[in-house]
Amino acid sequence: AILLKNFEREFAKEQYRKLPENLKVNKNEDEIVDLSDGHTLSTVLYAQDADRTQVIDELLEVIGNKEEYEALRWYLEAMCVLKKFRENEMLFMIQAYSKTQDEAAQWKINDIRTQVRDRLIKTGLFYWEEGGYKIEDNLRRELRGFLKNDEPENWKALNGAAFDLYKEWAEKFPRFRDHWEEQANAVQNA
Fold it and tell me: How far is CA 54 from CA 7, 80, 81, 153, in A?
């Protein structure tokens, strides 16, 4: 995966100002830069008055077919509350989010590897870094914003599930208690 860094705020504003006027339906550059966090494609889309769902659709365009898109987006939503995770956390979060996907509630670690991890890695939007899997930062930010603003009950439920998992692990694995408590605090304060 080729990961591009976001522009610093002032440089992002400068780039926005350079967009052709016919692309700027939304003229509020501060709002655009706040929404896009300096991500080039997101800046252009928000300038054209796209909503968050349209931006997510564009970021996920690499997936291609509709069925695959819907499944992978759902998995990404389930995991976007976590900054970094391994397969155990993937399984837990997908099961916590599986109110509508009964099959996922029965999954085991091998299912996560074949049904989720391997498929997401192929997109280039999901990768291993420093001891855990990560969702590409811009996509993760957009998914988190979508859940917070458009599906607040799911946002709260996923954060609550992650918090409970990390608190349980803090008790279960005292040698790593500080790490798991830090993770629990991060999702609680999100």
Answer: 21, 18, 20, 21
Extract the tokens encoding 75.
Answer: 């998995």
List Cβ neighbours of 143 (8 Å cut-off, separation of 6 or more). 56, 76, 77, 80, 135
Mind listing the pLDDT tens digit for each residue in 33-80?
Answer: 778 877 778 888 888 888 999 999 999 998 888 889 998 999 999 999
pTM, full prediction: 0.82
CA–CA distance, 101 with 94 (Å, rounded to integer): 9
